[in-house]
Amino acid sequence: MCSAWSAAGVCRGCGGVALAIALAAGLLAGADEGPRRWNGVRMADEGSAEAVRRAVAAAYERLREPACLALLSRFRDNEGRTLQENLDAAGETAQGYLERQVFFYEGYQLTTCRSRRAKKGLAVTKPGSHAIFVCSHRFKDLQERNPSEAEAVVLHELLHSLGLGENPPASREITEAVIRSCIQAASR
């Protein structure tokens, strides 16, 4: 039994519990704005992880736009299925897939991230993989300089995660399509 009630009718000793219950119930303002914490970002360096979280959150919002979602019907996997068909088979929306089924890891150990020749390497995944490896320091720099480009990287890798191969289409073509459909279309 609580003996120290606040003016708001909350037990002072139980405030943390009340806050947790309110959060779980979605009662706080803005609870419908999408996930606040991206549990799929699993990187040790908090600064890099936060840069990835910001880009993922923005990419999540881009996936609300019809022009951006149209990419999922435009691109196909190696079996000829559209990426939208792959999402449908998984019982997911594009936003749900990004939120629940894609994981971001440190990619420093990969040649793409360590090589001086691959200075433009920012992230990599294999078609159909749920794991995206991020060249954290390069990505963090890009996210700070040009957040829209960082969002495009996340969306580019999301397409690969859904099964899109490369060559063809070339990496540059994929990124250009993402920028045109998801970044530029939203600013019109």
Strand order across the largest sheet: 1-2-4-3
**pLDDT under 50 segments (min length 5)?**
1-35
Based on Cα principal axes, name the global outline: globular
> Helix share of residues?
40-55%
Number of contiguous helices: 10
Produce a short descriptive summary.
This protein is of the alpha/beta class. The chain contains ten helices and four strands.
What does this protein look like?
It is a single chain. This protein is an alpha/beta fold. The protein folds into two domains: 1-33, no CATH class; 37-187, no CATH class. Helix content is 51%, strand content 6%. It contains ten helices and four strands. The protein has helices spanning 15-25, 46-62, 66-69, 71-74, 83-90, 94-101, 111-114, 136-145, 147-161, 171-184; strands at residues 41-42, 103-106, 123-124, 131-134. Strands 1-2-4-3 form a four-stranded mixed sheet. Helix 2 crosses helix 8 and helix 8 packs across helix 9. It is globular and about 35 Å long.
What are the SSEs and their pairings?
Blueprint: H1 15-25, E1 41-42, H2 46-62, H3 66-69, H4 71-74, H5 83-90, H6 94-101, E2 103-106, H7 111-114, E3 123-124, E4 131-134, H8 136-145, H9 147-161, H10 171-184
Parallel strand pairs: 1-2, 2-4
Antiparallel strand pairs: 3-4
